[in-house]
């Protein structure tokens, strides 16, 4: 195992590369970084002694959030932890998209084990990102101490890294732990890493840390975000592919919603303009507002008013066949692989209006024939469409989520009027001005309407599983576990299952899995539990 932290750089993308950065415990998957060509690397004692290189190194932490690696292959970009593969995990663990091929079969059917690829690589790459963030934080602090960068610059850079650290830890919580609602956060959590494991002594120190509780992890990640909010401004020279004050506040809203702290969600949302009167909303921080068209955050994914934080992608960054969003989502007739389709049961749902622009702008139908007969005629998400250059950015937080998070919090605390205004702002954006489906009075079940709107608005963005997870113990709105799922064999190949007039319901032949079933949460990789005696495995794995 290499003991020397190094930075590999290529143009304006710098990636922290060292074996000790690749795993939570620091004791496996190290070999691939032991033989590196010196000409394209900078040792840590060089990076943090030059102000320009310090800032450049932060780009490497962002890059780690996008690309990751797959099964010990640094060159096999799979879109972990916040690229294509991880977004698909959020969809495939739910029921609103259908697995068509074998690529996501294990996730779709909850057949994962302690060695299955997707859950293992999510764990490994999330902790790799966390460790890179920690390494950067320590380096930036040291650079400020020695006067290489100013204390103010160090606080700003550290805040961006803390944002990514919090985002990564929360992703671990929603896949590997029970929700906060269970035992009020008293369930077993995940190790919250705040030190860089870049030496044998630090690895030994990390091995002493157990999983703690879910509540303890939430306390730590909110502390990270409070620090970041205090030290970030509402502007950045990079755009929304870097953390800003607004992105931090929006993430705090999401996390407090998962925590069930609805007053906290409202308080954070007020900073972003969600308490305003009227029917349109604008954030005083960073200037967020809903885009005029529901497809604009995707067709103009690098420049629009709605995106709060996204992961930048290009043909050079996360453009691998298994790492690019259009490869995962587009049908084969449009340059994709046809791996997952929109479920007819979402497409036909009564809560999704037939004239909703999200049908015509953000869904695409594959129409193919074989021997003169229709085959594989399904609807696919059209949010990611650059199959050639693979430049689609991964949406992590949009202002639409800010509004719907606040709407839910208001609905749960009795302010139906404000909840309805926020909900209607998102919904009406996708309805023609003369649509008979526009409404002027709150639905009888405002909460259910908001939750259903989330399913339509965020379809294909990986948000379905987080909602299933956080609502698992809700007395009224819980899915009561992993919902039953439609299989490819349940579908007619001619596309007739998709019909917004008759709205047929396709029987889901893959049975639901109860919340109490051990499969509701993922197992920790066996390599990690074997390396760390304090890392307790999830029950029954």
TrEMBL record:
It holds the Pfam family SusD-like_3. CDD domains: SusD. It comes from the Bacteria. GO terms for cellular component: cell outer membrane. Residues 370-541 form the RagB/SusD domain. The keyword Repeat does not apply. SUPFAM superfamilies: TPR-like. The keyword Membrane applies. Keywords: Cell outer membrane, Membrane, Signal. Its main location: membrane. InterPro entries: SusD-like_N (IPR033985), SusD_RagB_dom (IPR012944), TPR-like_helical_dom_sf (IPR011990). Residues 106-257 form the SusD-like N-terminal domain. It is found in: Cell outer membrane. Belongs to the SusD family. This is Starch-binding associating with outer membrane. It comes from Chitinophaga eiseniae.
